[in-house]
Design brief:
Blueprint (H helix, E strand, L loop, with lengths): L5 H25 L19 E8 L6 H9 L5 E8 L6 H6 L6 E5 L9 H12 L4 E5 L3 E3 L3 H11 L4 E5 L1 E2 L4 H17 L2 H4 L13 E5 H6 L12 H11 L4 E5 L4 E3 L5 H15 L4 H28 L10 H24 L10 H17 L2 E4 L2 E4 L2 E3 L11
Helix pairs in contact: 1-12, 6-13, 10-13, 11-12, 11-13
Length: about 400
Amino acid sequence: MSWSDPAFGAVLAGGWLALLTLVWVGLTLGVGRWGAAWRLRQRALERRVSVSICIPARNEEGRIGPAVRAALASDLQDLEIVVVDDRSEDGTAAEVAAIDDPRVRLVSGTEPGVGWAGKPWACMRAAGEARGELLLFIDADVELAPWAASSAVAELLERDLSMLSLFGDWRLESFWERAVIPVIGWFIRGAVDLDASNDPGRPEAFANGQFILVTREAYDRIGGHGAVRAEVLDDVRLARALKGRALRIGLLHGPGSFRVRLYESLGDIVSGYTKNLYEGMDRQPILALGAVLFVFVTTVLPYLLLAVAAFGGAALGWSLPDPGWILWLAGNCLLIHVFRWRLERTDGRSGVHALSHPIGNAVFVYILLRSMLGMEATWKGRRFHDGKAAGEAKEEKSPGQ
């Protein structure tokens, strides 16, 4: 059987379609099982613990206010909130200053020291101002549920952890947010081995920067965010630094624990994920190319082939394949939508945007290629080169001083 033999082509196409069917049946059946063994339970905190919620904020007007008010509603007995206004150019500082609560402190950020990325610098400054036994780092667009912080503290204390991180929920409003963010977000979550991250005997470590709870002792032991001062993925690298010191860390799925609006436009989605995706794969080209091929072959290519077979083949003078092949291909496309529908329903959304799944994956492929090929990325006016801070600072100093 030669490459030019039609029978060979039929065998190849049949094998691909069979594999495609297995992939989507397996993924569809597996929806809802991810993280089932590692869920945050809503529970009461049995003893008084001082907690400092640290929030770095750069140009977060309209988001920082709801974030701080949600944090203030946490059912913790001993709570303070330290917001570092990271040299914002909008009304971020004024929005925080307007919140009249003695538990909230606003700190003016300073220019990062040499070799520091902006966010680790602001986090280190917040930690230097904080008084709590435990530090909870959240992003400025994170809105905590009242029970989230106390339940996380209870989990950390019960398991004798040095750090606990959570995956929460996305707040999606625009079409592009709904189409793209669940695609990329669940791809990232699906790639995280929760068993390994929670196993102190294994080296794998992961953290989600939207929610990182760490003991002051462990944080100081690794030098705080100084251990990850130049990193664009400071959250993941912080988890690795802690676990590398034989400190116990935990990573849980916490549906309902918090919600976050990551990006508000397609441009923000592209810029934000371009900065993070390739770095999250440890800049391994084989791994990244494998991800591109997997997403394209399993999610984008079936629709392209179906469109050509059903609508474009005759116009181009191509002979249409056997109708059975077209039906099989269409069945796989339907499976893709069923998978996304189940994913949407698992996240508590209506499922309508299951129809946008191929569009979201096409954007995902573009972003991943852009992340691989673009040596530099820009986010909120800051430049990153090869996943490190680039050209931000002029003076070496400690943000805690």
